[in-house]
């Protein structure tokens, strides 16, 4: 689980995605002085794997004016990737359009990489088993949309990928309206969160809540321990 760490930082981005301004908190996050950042393309401050998704998010905000929340990794000079929560909104009009960024650094989970990988493999194994069971016995007997949604979101979290509502529906092989009802129920229960405000749409990015992530990690940790030979309570 990742938790908030340190003060929020703020910055301004131009329409061409170059950095206009950052504050001292952002200097600390990026590990570079202001003069080394201003004038650079903001995508250059992100981990390679996150740049395409970030560019789509930023250009959509510029086009629609709709503020967005999303999670990315800033890449520091020492090659350390720092997870951050970003809130980005459009300000100004015409040629003065800019993006205002609020950045909240996150603390990485303390689970070791080997444990994280083992839990990720366990989640994928469970999803595969459910899919096989549904094919053999039918979805009416095997499978539960809520469970499959949580597992799919966990796998996406472990792989540091965003997952959208429609993608979840496709992965668990249910129609979008049914998936949306389950997403609403899980959201109301506090187990999933939306990465942008508003109703749940097909392109709404979904992620696990910290509560759900902690609970699933505990379950997978127990399953991994059993698989490695730990005794099982009768």
Low-pLDDT windows of residues? 1-5, 109-113
Overall shape = globular
| Percentage of residues assigned to helices | 40-55%
Strand content: 15-25%
CATH superfamily of the largest domain, by name, is Winged helix-like DNA-binding domain superfamily/Winged helix DNA-binding domain
Number of helices: 8
Q: What's the CATH architecture of the largest domain?
A: Orthogonal Bundle
Given helix and strand content, the structural type is alpha+beta
Number of strands: 9
What order do the SSEs take from the amino end to the carboxyl end, as H and E? Answer: EEEHHHEEEHHEHHEEH
Q: How many whole angstroms does the radius of gyration measure?
A: 20 Å
Average residue pLDDT? 84
First-last Cα distance: 30 Å
CATH topology heading of the largest domain: Arc Repressor Mutant, subunit A
* CATH C-level category of the largest domain: Mainly Alpha
Largest sheet entry: 6 strands, antiparallel
Integer tally of domains: 2
Outline the structure in words:
There is one protein chain. The chain is α+β, with helices and mostly antiparallel strands and 234 residues long. The chain folds into two domains: 9-105, Beta-Lactamase; 115-228, Orthogonal Bundle (Arc Repressor Mutant, subunit A), CATH 1.10.10. The protein is 44% helix and 21% strand. The protein has eight helices and nine strands. The strands form two sheets. Strands 1, 2, 3, 4, 5 and 6 form a six-stranded antiparallel beta sheet that branches. The chain has a three-stranded antiparallel beta sheet with strand order 7-9-8. β4 (68-75) and β5 (81-91) form a beta hairpin. The protein is globular, with a radius of gyration of 20 Å. The two termini are 30 Å apart. Residues 1-5 and 109-113 have low confidence and may be disordered.
